[in-house]
Amino acid sequence: MMTPEHVALQDSVKKLIEREIEPFVDQWEADEIFPAHEVFKKLGTAGYLGVNKPTEFGGMGLDYSYEIAFCEAIGGISSGGVGMAIAVQTDMATPALARFGSDELRETFLKPTVAGDFVVCLGVSEAGAGSDVASLKTTARKDGEDYVINGSKMWITSGLQADWMCLLANTSDGDVHRNKSLICLPLRENGKLRPGITMNKIKKVGMWSSDTAQVFFDEVRVPQRYRIGEEGKGFTYQMRQFQEERLSGATRRVTALTHAISETIEYTRERKAFGRSILDNQVVHFRLAELKTEVEMLRSLIYRAAQVHMSGGDMTELASMAKLKAGRLCREVTDSCLQYWGGMGFTWENRVSRAWRDLRLISIGGGADEIMLTIICKHMGILPKRPA
Questions:
Q1: Rg (Cα) of the chain, in Å, rounded?
Q2: Which of 55, 83, 176, 213 is deepest in the core (most CB within 10 A)?
């Protein structure tokens, strides 16, 4: 799937990462936040926040395969939190807006987001509704020309810095799959949180450089014209948006895992024990070869899913498989690599131990492994029907 043009895009992204991101990663990890507006503006100016977004709203207008190439490139950032936050901007919180939003809405929210002037977050999960999206409780009731929003959202990446949120909320009663809408919700005015919005920072096991928040809404007003697409179709729009999120997550992990394996090879080649390098032990080099093979198989699955998506097909099953396999491999590869680093693998600053912490998230976020298995079973026709 990768042509010289795709490789050229990746090379230019990698150069920006090496210049503008990597030198500061350790400090951002220590600070538990990175300057999203500053970093995103540099990415936006270079065009990288809108690789497959419409040209009339600042994007490059390239096909989805180039977005996959971009995701591979940012997967090489040595802090998973920074890459994840970038992906929220490009593949998690904006696909539905780009596809279903009005021109006015895309001019107001998508264009400055693609330019890196706005930071966006995705507001779907709640404390009592993570993978079970249909059960979310946040409401947006109609009052005149506005929606009035009440409720809360949990695990919001970039929440402490975001200018707006792509919010999924209940806009009516009735069927939980048909009573939700996606809304572009401005979070700040003149750099300060809007009245009725409060936030708490969440301290996490990994992804330290990415700020994460619980967000509360108390009678927060937003014009109804800020709704994305049709009222009541938010659940459907978000399910489609999830597919790009999940494939983006799997794609970034391919690069991260490849780097973990490469760094482990380098370390074990130099590290000596009992008169020879750790790498010369058959149990080590065979295991690394096996893991590299698994990662390359995942890459092929991702490319196949992307091709289905570009052809107008439904990549739900393949994207779910890719995310599931990525999650399993993130645990398997990072744990094996950390073991071969010995005591050094258990030190905080080690890049492999950081990957071990950061990459664990993919088996939970964006739909847990068990949800991916449920989706795959449904497509296979083997999922038991629920009792009426």
A1: 21
A2: 83
pLDDT at 388: 65
Which position has the token pair 């895992």? 257
By percentage, how much of the chain surpasses pLDDT 90? Answer: 95
- For residue 129, the SS3 value is strand
SS3 215: strand
- pTM, rounded to two decimals: 0.96
- Which pLDDT belongs to residue 280? 97
User: 48: closest CA among 24, 72, 25, 23?
Assistant: 72
- Would you say how long the chain is, in residues? 388
The vertex-298 CA angle with 300 and 70, nearest 5°, equals 75
Helix (H) or strand (E) holding 67: helix 64-74
CB 209 within 8 A of CB 29: yes
Backbone angles phi, psi at 185, to 5 degrees: -110, 110
Buried residues in 270-303 as b, exposed as e (16+ CB within 10 A) = eeeeeeeebbeeeebbebbeebbeebeebbebbb
Active site residue 245: yes
Catalytic residue of the set 245, 270, 290, 296: 245
Listed in sequence order, the residues at least 6 apart from 175 whose beta carbon sits closer than 8 Å to its beta carbon are none
> CB–CB of 359/253 below 8 Å?
yes
